[in-house]
Input
Amino acid sequence: MNNKKYKNLIIKTKIAFYSKIKGFFIFRPYGLKIWENIKYILNKMLIKTKHKNYYFPLLIPKSLFNIEYNNIKNFYKECAIVTHTRFLIKKKKLVIDQKSKLNEELIIRPTSEVIIWDTCKEWIQSYKDLPLLINQWVNVVRLEMKNKMFLRNSEFLWQEGHTAHKNKKEAINEIKKIKKIYINLIKKKLSIPFIYGKKTNTEKFSGAKFTYSFETLTNNGKCIQLATIHFLAKNFSKAFKVMYTNKENKKEYVWNTSWGISTRLIGAMIMIHSDNKGLIIPPKISPIHIIIIPIIKKKYYYKYIKKINKIVKKLKKKLKKNKIKIKYDNNLNITPGNKYFKYEKMGIPIRIVIGKKEIKNNFIEIYRRDKDKKYILKLNNKINIKIINILNKIQKNIYKKAKKKMIKNTFIINDYKIFKKKIINNGGFILSYWDNKKSTELKIKNETKATIRCIINKKKNGKCIYTGKKTNTKVVFGKSY
Amino acid sequence: MNNKKYKNLIIKTKIAFYSKIKGFFIFRPYGLKIWENIKYILNKMLIKTKHKNYYFPLLIPKSLFNIEYNNIKNFYKECAIVTHTRFLIKKKKLVIDQKSKLNEELIIRPTSEVIIWDTCKEWIQSYKDLPLLINQWVNVVRLEMKNKMFLRNSEFLWQEGHTAHKNKKEAINEIKKIKKIYINLIKKKLSIPFIYGKKTNTEKFSGAKFTYSFETLTNNGKCIQLATIHFLAKNFSKAFKVMYTNKENKKEYVWNTSWGISTRLIGAMIMIHSDNKGLIIPPKISPIHIIIIPIIKKKYYYKYIKKINKIVKKLKKKLKKNKIKIKYDNNLNITPGNKYFKYEKMGIPIRIVIGKKEIKNNFIEIYRRDKDKKYILKLNNKINIKIINILNKIQKNIYKKAKKKMIKNTFIINDYKIFKKKIINNGGFILSYWDNKKSTELKIKNETKATIRCIINKKKNGKCIYTGKKTNTKVVFGKSY
Output
């Protein structure tokens, strides 16, 4: 999907809207509801694993970023910096009151590690206070130069997890646990295929020891980072003196992790699942599962409308237990054709049409958005089970289709000339070997704009795509959004 | 409750915590969950009345506030103003990059009228697009000089509703609708008594034509504004040119309202319901409804623990359907006495104790936090109904107690000398007549620090408490937090 088509689709389906400030967007109800559904699902999983929700301040004093110098490297060129607190009113216009200059600048959180560990050290005394499993659902600001709705917003909504553990093993276990949870969310709920692996030192979160990431691919061969998990080791605990007393009564630094997913997932979902007709929303996160449209000629209206209403009522009742959300659009002023067009564009998974023919034969017409196909379904007691079955099939089919496309655009390449050609003409995921040298990584980036998305494995031996040196590091290259 | 006790209670019960920046606080899981419960309840009501959730940007360009000049009067001295976007790193420290100065300052939203109506005018064409019923759940920043956890946070979480209507009548109806919803929330869910009325011109939201407010009283005789509803008339639609085409094909300005409640409600709840033992959380918003504590002597432990676990399991299962949240604290390392102390302080509505005696006699001991009293309850099939009954009684009793206190501290006074004495020595709500003059209002404020909380009615005639002039305006005076 090209950029223009992507933007148009988002505006037309009322997922989001422009604001006057570059990079800031308005989430309209349909888009926000998708985010709320993602939030609800992930939050439930995180509560099960004993993570707790907190809310830490939006503004962070500059001095905290000075303490953990590495941490800010990713963000210091894209901060929203608060410097003053008062206006004067001059000729009915606001003018900054220079006397209100802050002694220390405040930064709108680009991420919250520093404020969280600077605070939480006061809560951690003994090993009994660990693990500390913090999560928060908040807005963050990173004033990136290039913007793209959902994929690169200057302000976005996200979930940021921050945990403290007694030792390395427990921190590593936490990372495995979060990996599983994110796989569940991304694969099973958003139907998005991905590659998972470790970032290179160049590409990792600068405050982390290691960063793991989930990477996916769009139709136009570009990569999207879906989620990241950071193993922070003792980087932050040493900087902020977050210590606990162990069983032997000795002071030790805690081990930290942090991890997050954001509203970017909505952008990825749109990029990956949409087709020529518009959005395709995976049922598990769709604000509406079924749109029901009555079809009656005007002259038969009074004869059939009551019967249709009755069927709709029954269906709604039957499916309410299964939390299936149904919208019944019986607006007479809009033609069925226009309704079809609208809801197909919105990506509602199932459309049900009921008219004279359907009533007479006691069936309904079902349209599957993902396959763009119609089916006939007998109206009987098992209708709810059948519909739920179809929704599950849609969920899986969307994933299968996306995975197929991803595989089709994934290439194993050993020759740098072919690599270059492929990256420039086609894009996609390119699996190659790399000699673990930063210089090689940067040369490839300079020549092709491709970066290493993540390291896949270190099992077999091969030759570096650029230098030809022997190496066991297999990586995925790609161009990022 | 004095300030120190209030703060201590919040810190000790882990409702919230200090941050390093004045006026910014950390919501810990117990406090945040109370807010999430309030949000869940109110959101459900607002969805029923067809309000939709949006998310508008955190940052607002200064020029938008210049357009509706009146609107900013309330906030221009307490704005978080973003002026720069980049740092330089000098000797491993962050220094503002002066080259990154913004052409136009951005303000962290103190409220969102201007950005919402500046955007939404593009969505409103015809009368068919109205009413537009917008709500958002967001963080806002107002850097107030005086801070008090929850009651005056520099950053707080809130819900802000913004609506557009065809005519005055519909806007007034919206206000009535929201009034009902807020009464339901404040009275029935938070068990907080209140006085409702119109603000004076001095006290209203400066962007509004009228402001209505819910006011309550704390034990120490001070007033808290719980919620406000603003009738904006055409103030914003004229400023931002929000127009629609009516049925006669003529352009007209829309009529607007806005309204909000915030995390201040948590502060009010703490102030109003707490007693010497600690918090008392109304069941409808309590994160935990029942704390179960087993009591067994060590030597009988293995004999009874299984039986107790079984009873707890049954109770949990029975009450799950009714969404009653139970916590079972079977930690052997803490004495029952310490547990009592902890959960009473946290304000958990019901404590259930099960020990040898209870098992033998097939009953449980129930403790009601609101009455500080114990009861015996037979363990039979109706136990869940009985417990739900008790929770409902607690909910009502908390309200009754609070209302009694409010009435006890509400005085009808006609003599300014007595008025002054009362305000200074005692505080409370003072019902008096006022001559509708701003000068009178300000003189009283200067002399007593009391402001008019709201206008109660304009039915009977009386004499102004200050000037003695004849007037029909009865108001409530009080000192605010």
